[in-house]
Amino acid sequence: MTEQLTLFATAAFGLEGIVAAELKRLDMKNVTGEIGGARFTGTLEDAFLCNLRLRCADRVLLILAEKECRTFEELFQLVKSVAWEDLMPADAKINVSGKCARSQLMSIRDCQAITKKAVIERLRMATQQSVFPETGIAYPITVSLHNDVARITLDLSGDALNRRGYRTWNGEAPLRETLAATLVELSPWRPGMRLHDPCCGTGTLLIEAAFRLGHRAPGLTRRFSMEEFPFFPREACDALRRQARFDFKPDRISGITGSDIDPSALELANRHIRQAGLEGLVTVEQQPLETLQLTDETGVFLCNPPYGERLSDRKSCEKLYGQMRRLKARHPGWSLCAISSDPNFERAYGKRADKKRRLYNGRLECEFLIYR
Ligand SMILES: C[S@@+](CC[C@H](N)C(=O)[O-])C[C@H]1O[C@@H](n2cnc3c(N)ncnc32)[C@H](O)[C@@H]1O
After folding, report:
1. Does pTM top 0.70 for this prediction?
2. How far is the CA of 216 from the centre of ligand 1 (A)?
3. Is 174 in the pocket of ligand 1 (CB under 6 A)?
4. Which residues span the domain enclosing 277?
5. How many domains does the chain divide into?
6. What is the Cα–Cα distance from 24 to 11, expressed in whole angstroms?
7. pLDDT score for 99
């Protein structure tokens, strides 16, 4: 499979443009942002490179068919038109997931069942086999309907790309790695500057910033579903992984630190830092934000403070937001960036942000606020 394929990098709502920009930086062709991600063209090697190196995307999908479908019969015929026999062995385990929005066909479960039936029908015709035991490797297929257009895809990532492999314990309200990487990208921090997370929790923002600083491909040490497929171009992709390993320059990583009030969160942060291969390069210490004092004249505070989802916690969170303003006042050369779902953040902080961007942390609508 050396031909140009139509690929799609999925992104959390609102991050489509950021993922499109990442794809362009990776030199992908015909990149266009769409609802839910960015479409591009490339080879299987390109798809593997994206799996390895995209920081903000959730998955890389291969688009196999796409067409308007208003009936189950149309969907069945569309799925059956794909040459599944060229993609998968007859013992493949067919896992179909689905999504439906603003379409005539709105039953996700029925769309999944029809899709699976059509894949098996196509395999039956091609192989003359009548029984499909599904004892082999898993093929994650997606059927998604949006505005009556059905899209059939094969998931080339497997586990979502936020699963970098360094996080094994979650702590309290951790940030998804892909969102953390996005916040690093949206913040005014750039390589060469100091970065400190004063509510670092399990250390996700620090690790993602260090990965960026050290040119560490986020997917370097994990596997992807495409590696199991018979058409996987192993040699070329092994070379891409070797290159990514070579590009990782740990000696570039300095000036990234964190602190937190909770020693158990810091224990997790240290564990994650170690598992990310960053021991000694990223350091954290126990320190309440209220008394934090750094000696560097300039830098960026980047944090994901508690949001106070329950009313009882809200007051203490808002007090903490007020303390964040004092922290910034003690460090006049520093910027401060925070993500919060609390609509009263600016009032509690005591000043309007210089820049704001709406984002989702999971299902929570949040704002990313920047004070310069
Ligand atoms: C939402 S969690 C941060 C999660 C983190 N981004 C991660 O990925 O694990 C908020 C963190 O703020 C810390 N925190 C709360 N009050 C604090 C204070 N006064 N000073 C420093 N840290 C505080 C909590 O201990 C908690 O770890």
Report:
1. yes
2. 25
3. yes
4. 177-216+231-371
5. 2
6. 15
7. 94
